[in-house]
Amino acid sequence: MSAPGTRVPFGARLAAAMDEHGPLCVGIDPHGPLLRDWGLPDDAAGVRELGLRVVDALGGRVAALKPQVAFFERHGSRGIAALEEVLAAARAAGTLTVVDAKRGDIGSTMSAYADAFLSDGSTLAGDAVTVSPYLGFGSLSPALELAEATGRGLFVLCLTSNPEGAAVQHAVGSDGRSIAASVAAQAARHNAGASPLGSVGLVVGATIGDAARATGTELEAVNGPLLAPGVGAQGAGQRELADVFGGARGNVLASSSRGVLAAGPDGSALLAAARRSADEVRSALRAGR
């Protein structure tokens, strides 16, 4: 629930939302096949309608919503206007938003991205944004600084489930650590001393197996939220979660989009699907702890 001027850190607000609603973030991914399944046109009007229906059904009832920017951007300026409306509706509903933009650049360009997605008064700003550290973690400094100043957060790509990611994320740097481990360590430095959670989170796929251990990535030390696609009904159960997250399972925010959105367009069916997913995630994360 982005509120211009508030300085309650994102990590604290997210922890409270997860305690209240369960550790589930529902993605808003209005791709073409889903729009057709919902009986909506594959255009900006359809994207807007789907997004607003999701907010209407789930606003105030899940920990967070995560609109995927690409599905709005592909419809040009009208698609961006639809994204602005969806973010405003979620804000009005008191629901945290993670803007899934995966931005990453250097210098003034990164500063511009930060202004767009993290500054007070920006119509594209949510409560957090996804970013890529693969031009060097230091390139994220403008976003890190603005997020801290405005009480917002970042989710930094760390260990993703796509097979191509391993070539970069598992590679070993000059310091002898894997790139993923270095990303996690730098996030941990930014979160040091934060309670109950820091505001610099990581994106870690729940189906990556033992990649965290294999790359020396100490997720327990991050002290921030771990945005995790693939939990529960999406494939990762108790054993997989133990392999990936270990003692950091209490910091996991599971991400589900198609698994919940497939229940639409009926609002009550969407809510029921989200509640089932939240229960499954909560059960899987608590098992064995």
Describe the structure.
The protein is an alpha/beta fold. It has a single domain, classed as Aldolase class I (TIM Barrel), CATH 3.20.20. The protein has 13 helices and eight strands. It has helices at 10-21, 32-37, 44-58, 69-73, 76-92, 107-118, 141-150, 166-169, 179-191, 211-214, 238-245, 258-261, 267-286, and strands spanning 24-28, 64-67, 96-103, 128-131, 153-159, 200-204, 226-229, 252-256. An eight-stranded parallel beta barrel has the order 1-2-3-4-5-6-7-8, surrounded by seven helices. Helix 6 (107-118) links the parallel strand 3 (96-103) and strand 4. The longest helix has 20 residues, at 267-286. It is globular. The two termini are 30 Å apart. The model is unreliable at 1-5 (pLDDT under 50). Belongs to the OMP decarboxylase family. Type 2 subfamily. It catalyses: orotidine 5'-phosphate + H(+) = UMP + CO2. It comes from Isoptericola halotolerans. Its EC number is 4.1.1.23. It is an enzyme of class 4 (lyase).
Helix content: 40-55%
Structural class: alpha/beta
Number of continuous helical runs: 13
Q: Mind describing the biggest β-sheet?
A: 8 strands, parallel, barrel
CATH class bucket: Alpha Beta
N- to C-terminal distance: 30 Å
The CATH architecture is Alpha-Beta Barrel
* CATH homologous superfamily title: Aldolase class I
| Average pLDDT rating | 93
Beta fraction: 5-15%
Shape: globular
Number of domains: 1
Low-pLDDT sequence parts:
1-5
Count of DSSP strands: 8
